[in-house]
């Protein structure tokens, strides 16, 4: 793993490189470099680029994919906290999150066109990373109940309660169905619960 880490960091700093270049930089055998490159390529972190030279076959260079950005540390939570703290200090957090919900819902509505009822909800939850939520959607007398055992906004929701209202707002704006959050993990529950009401019930 240390060699793979060094390899990835080198490619991040220097761009696409050949096996020969990587062998010299990492001070390991060509076979070892190829082994690590193959493993990283299978993982979707690397791709091959062929560069034509003056003579002979095109040189194969290995470069990082867009997906590899996830391998490098980011400071998104700190930035989000700073933005929300400033919005709260200026009395703008409710308006800001209302706009965020509308923007998210607008993008989702186009993808949900033609779907109705539970099929529409299932598609919506898939688009909202339903799998990552560890969610369970169940039919009720008045509509549906969604229990999400992994809150995607948990840390931020602990600091800003308004963030916990974002999912039901997005659900309501994207589907046209009334939605609410009776309680969630910030209340000490094992799951965040969202109620979605069927029209006319």
UniProtKB/TrEMBL annotation:
What is an example of a GO molecular function annotated in this UniProt entry?
DNA-binding transcription factor activity
Q: Which residues form the HTH deoR-type domain?
A: 4-45
Say if the entry is tagged with keyword Transcription: yes
Keywords noted in UniProt: Transcription, Transcription regulation
Database matches in SUPFAM superfamilies: Winged helix' DNA-binding domain
The record's listing under InterPro entries reads: ArsR-like_HTH, DeoR_HTH, WH-like_DNA-bd_sf, WH_DNA-bd_sf
Domain of life according to the entry:
Bacteria
Q: Which protein is depicted? A: Transcriptional regulator
Organism expressing this protein natively: Allomeiothermus silvanus (strain ATCC 700542 / DSM 9946 / NBRC 106475 / NCIMB 13440 / VI-R2)
Q: What is the lineage of its organism?
A: Bacteria, Thermotogati, Deinococcota, Deinococci, Thermales
């Amino acid at each position: 793993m240390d060699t793979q880490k060094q390899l990835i960091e080198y490619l991040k700093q220097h761009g696409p490189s050949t096996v020969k270049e990587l062998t010299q930089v990492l001070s390991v055998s060509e076979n070892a470099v190829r082994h690590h490159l193959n493993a990283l390529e299978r993982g979707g972190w690397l791709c091959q680029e062929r560069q034509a030279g003056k003579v002979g076959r095109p040189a194969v260079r290995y470069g990082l994919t867009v997906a590899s950005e996830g391998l490098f540390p980011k400071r998104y939570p700190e930035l989000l906290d700073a933005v929300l703290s400033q919005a709260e200090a200026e009395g703008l957090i409710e308006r800001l999150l209302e706009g965020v919900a509308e923007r998210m819902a607008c993008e989702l509505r186009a993808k949900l066109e033609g779907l109705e009822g539970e099929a529409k909800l299932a598609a919506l939850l898939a688009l909202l990373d339903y799998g990552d939520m560890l969610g369970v959607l169940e039919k009720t007398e008045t509509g549906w109940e969604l229990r999400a055992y992994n809150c995607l906004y948990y840390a931020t929701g602990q600091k800003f309660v308004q963030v916990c209202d974002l999912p039901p707002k997005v659900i309501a704006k994207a589907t046209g169905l009334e939605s609410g959050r009776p309680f969630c993990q910030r209340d000490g529950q094992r799951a965040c619960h969202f109620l979605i009401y069927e029209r006319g019930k």
